[in-house]
Amino acid sequence: MVNTARFVVLVLAYRFLVPFLSAEPGQAKESYVVYMGSPSGGAGAGGDPEAVRASHLEMLSSIVPDDEQERVALKHSFHHSFEGFAAELTEKEAAALAGHERVVSVFRDRTLQLHTTRSWDFLEVQSGLQSGRLGRRASGDVIIGIVDTGVWPESPSFSDAGMREVPARWRGVCMEGPDFKKSNCNKKLIGARYYSVMPESNASSALASTGSPRDTVGHGTHTASTAAGAVVADADYYGLARGAAKGGAPGSRVAVYRACSLGGCASSAVLKAIDDAVADGVDVVSVSIGMSSAFQSDFLSDPIALGAFHANQRGVLVVCSAGNDGPNPYTVVNTAPWILTVAASSIDRTFRSTVALGNGNVVKGVGINFSNHSLTGTHYPLVFGADAAAHYAPVGEASNCYPGSLDAQKVAGKIVVCVATDPMVSRRVKKLVAEGSGARGLVLIDDGEKDVPLVAGGFAFSQVGVDAGAQILEYINSTKNPTAVILPTEDVKDFKPAPVVASFSARGPGISESILKPDLMAPGVSILAATIPSADKDDVPPGQKPSLFAIKSGTSMACPHVAGGAAFVKSAHPGWTPSMVRSALMTTATTTNNLGRPLASSTGAAATGHDMGAGEMSPLRALSPGLVFDTALHDYLDFLCFYGYKEGLVRKVSGDARFACPAGAAASPSPDLAAAAVNYPSISVPRLLKGKPVAVARTAINVGPSNATYVAAVEAPPGLTVRVSPDRLVFSKRWTTARYEVSFSVAGAGASKGYAHGAVTWSDGAHTVRTPFAVNVVWCD
Fold it and tell me: Span 678-777: which CATH code?
């Protein structure tokens, strides 16, 4: 009999080594993206697509050897909002193209990762406003582009009942495939495109290779319905989270761009999708995708940052997820200043999975399971993983439910208790290990991620904290025959405190500490939204049909909340620029929870700007922000100059041959000046030395009533002196502007080293305009 594991290893080794063994050094071919910036005139972006494509082929042909011209082919040609292409190149060919006078950057076509009933109602309650009067101000002609894994068009969330005709400005298409017809689009789902995607890890997902906008993962359907799904009454996930499911902008239109699969997202496909979305006529693009925080690129080699820049140039707001690598600092991704970066929070609902012990004690845990355990039925033997170790397996591995560590004979038919002292083994893996060993349930003792219930399907599961876990282990040691039962999940409403920054949500600072990231926080924990019908019987409780809705967590879920909120604001203010919409959402964000206390992280510590940005989004409050901060294109270009990019490159990016970097920007990167260069609704000072104050200027636009006077109030952290000049802004008319400066200095010896957080808040008595700041105190230059 063939050793299967060894056979697989040999096959994989052959597949990966043969290309390198058969090619000369430096001649292995990979997919690269060649980015050429905005057109400077003549043929280029926005011109004849065939002419642009021909020019790209000519450029590619010029660096490919004559005897290999048959491989001159474009994977993608970018020609709408910017110019460039993707193609198979050797490393030497990529280097040759990087030196071409028309090229800004060349980078490998990397794999990017995919990062509701109650959530929208919760945001409305937290706003303290009533939606009736304000909601009537919004129209339904905003178009949201969703770059993700596609869509399941049959979901009731994409019903177009009662919707008006598609806006005449829409220029997109509904691409067909073997499993997707033009008739799948309607007045709600107005467009659908697909691109070459990463191969599915599941061989049964054959649809991925056929070419179709249809979602085979569920991620894209979930995000699209969260942003703009129609109202669906009595939606639920097998009885849990029952209520009216809806998107943030249920009157808005949706266009989907399938650039991803279960295997991830090719960066060239994501770049092409954003380019097409802008050309199609979307108003907002939602991108729940990003690079790993460990391998972030500079802005001109980041496909999402590049696509978002040119979208912003053309008046389209791009909203991105912040990533799921929290809670450690410096993990936030998608941090370009022209991107609206979203962190994730909890809502006032949790899912309780109760453990009833044989001694009558009850322990409240969290988790989503549909087990057939019952309080009046059979109690199952309870065993600690360390006491059920397989032969030769270390006790520490068995206590962590490490793969291969449990003795099936000691576990079968029992509820196993495991701990989480080994961070290499995820909750889902522990669940699979216990289930595969024949256990009837798993109790996981772990304070980490306890704010995010694991969806365990029909397998009995509960996660409890360390203190409750100690109680369970004490019970196991107190009797010869410990027993327990894990009850099916029940949802708990009006949970407090909420919102809380999710434990997984990525934290700032970003790669440029001159911009405070993330920008904003929105619901991203246990969000109910539409999904694809599951073909996996383990996901469907016995006797049930596959659910049309799913409960998912991640900054992927938070991102479309903000995209929907932005569409809601845009529908009421169609003339606002992307940065004005972003500003309205940020300056009106809430910073207290449903107990009236400051927002906190999952550890209980006070949340800072690096955790939550400006705070929890409040779309209703954002409809009337009072003041907004409009960020102009030259702000972003100046930022690139101060960040360290040469003037010639910035000209190519912008398409403006006359652009000049500010004086002093060309010498070396200037993070302090970069912080002041962008008229942003938050402030980040990356370096503050004692005796060297830093001043940051901002310009506000009055979008409220005439004859308004705003007075400044400062939340200054200990050890810092923060002054606002002037501290009073007077606006005689609407749409007039006022400029002010915020100066920061170290106050004596009281300042601690590192980041300190606070805010400047302007108020006219009716509006509150809060701009958070983060200041990094350093002791030496």
Answer: 2.60.40.2310
DSSP 8-state symbol, 157: G
Q: Which of 560, 568, 554, 553 is nearest to 241 (CA)?
A: 553
In CATH terms, the fold of domain 113-348+499-622 is Rossmann fold (3.40.50)
Burial class (CB in 10 A: 0-12, 13-18, 19+), 633: middle
What is d(CA 608, CA 301) in angstroms, rounded to the nearest whole number? 29
- What is the end-to-end Cα distance of the chain in Å, rounded? 67
CATH entry 3.30.160.20 includes domain 351-482? no
Q: How many helices (H) and strands (E) does the chain have?
A: 19, 40
Say if CB 154 and CB 293 are below 8 A apart.
no
Q: Where are the domains of the chain?
A: 26-109, 113-348+499-622, 351-482, 678-777
> Rounded to whole angstroms, how far apart are CA atoms 769 and 499?
21
Q: Which among 334, 257, 329, 755 is positioned nearest to 559, based on CA atoms?
A: 334
Side-chain-side CA neighbours of residue 202 (13 Å) = 11
3-state secondary structure (DSSP) of residue 92:
helix
Q: What's the pTM?
A: 0.89
Annotated catalytic sites, by residue?
148, 219, 556
Divide the 781 residues of the chain into consecutive groups of 10 and give the mean pLDDT of each group: 34 35 57 87 59 90 85 89 92 91 91 62 54 47 95 96 94 96 97 80 42 94 95 91 87 95 91 97 96 80 95 97 94 96 94 94 93 79 95 93 94 96 88 94 92 89 95 95 93 90 95 95 94 77 85 94 95 96 98 95 94 95 96 94 91 93 76 82 94 94 97 95 97 97 86 92 97 91 60
Q: For residues 160 and 166, what is the distance between their CA atoms, to the nearest angstrom?
A: 10
Cα four-point dihedral sign 403, 406, 407, 412:
negative
The identity of residue 753, as a single letter, is: K
Query: What fold characterizes domain 26-109?
Result: Alpha-Beta Plaits (3.30.70)
